[in-house]
Design a protein that fits this description.
Strand order of the largest sheet: 2-1-3-4-5-6
Largest sheet: 6 strands, parallel
Strand content: 5-15%
Number of helices: 10
Helix content: 40-55%
Shape: elongated
């Protein structure tokens, strides 16, 4: 059997290099590393000309949403096994990743032994979810919010989590607000009523913990939401 052609996608190159060294030192894994990529764009350019067997990837990337990238890769390269290795382990992230086509999910807080086990399971055509992660919340538990984490009073520092707080329509409207368009202009562009735009605008400000449009624009720019 030929070695498993493997690529790692993670914006933290130093971390990815450490993963490679760990996996190379394991005697029972026959992996050949085709590269480490820090952006989805670089990975997609690489995949146009080269086939791989295994992709180990983070969800939060510098230029893409990993949850959207998973089905994109699966649709184009259905034989590629995808193992998510992420620091984002909220129940909904795990569930969404697996529904989107990921073959396995493991936390960066797990051990190297579990990572090796995950790879062995995935390349053997089995699905894998690491210890401590759940597809459904434990009985009686209630997540703090839709995607985990504390969103109160606008105090959050992770743009990946912030973007996941907003619906797709809210993201569209936020992009237009940043362009200094008023409710009627946004409504005309999106073919909805200006009253509906007003409701979305209020929901966006509530979710992001800001009280007026000026602070909303400032927050969006500072957190690179547009």
């Amino acid at each position: 059997m030929s070695s498993i052609k493997t690529v790692i996608l993670d914006k933290h190159i130093l971390f990815a290099e450490g993963v490679v060294e760990i996996l190379r030192s394991h005697p029972h894994l026959d992996l050949s590393f085709s590269g480490i990529y820090s952006s989805a764009l670089k990975l997609k350019i690489f995949l146009k000309n080269t086939s791989i067997d295994l992709l180990i990837m983070e969800l939060a990337l510098s230029d893409a949403d990993g949850l959207q990238l998973i089905p994109e890769i699966k649709n184009s390269f259905e034989d590629v096994k995808i193992l998510v290795l992420s620091s984002y382990t909220d129940t909904r992230f795990v569930k969404k990743a697996m529904q989107s086509g990921a073959d396995g999910f493991i936390s960066k807080a797990n051990s190297s032994v579990e990572l090796i086990n995950a790879i062995e399971q995935v390349i053997s055509d089995r699905t894998f979810v690491a210890n401590g992660l759940h597809i459904t919340p434990p009985s009686g538990s209630t997540p703090r919010n839709e995607f985990g984490g504390d969103f109160n009073n606008g105090t959050y520092k992770d743009k990946f989590l912030i973007r996941k707080r907003l619906t797709r329509r809210e993201q569209e409207i936020l992009n237009l607000i940043i362009q200094a368009k008023n409710n009627k202009e946004i409504a005309s562009e999106l073919y909805i009523s200006d009253q509906t735009v007003g409701v979305h605008r209020k929901n966006i400000m509530r979710k992001l913990g800001v009280k007026n449009t000026i602070n909303l624009i400032k927050f969006a720019i500072e957190h690179e939401l547009v």
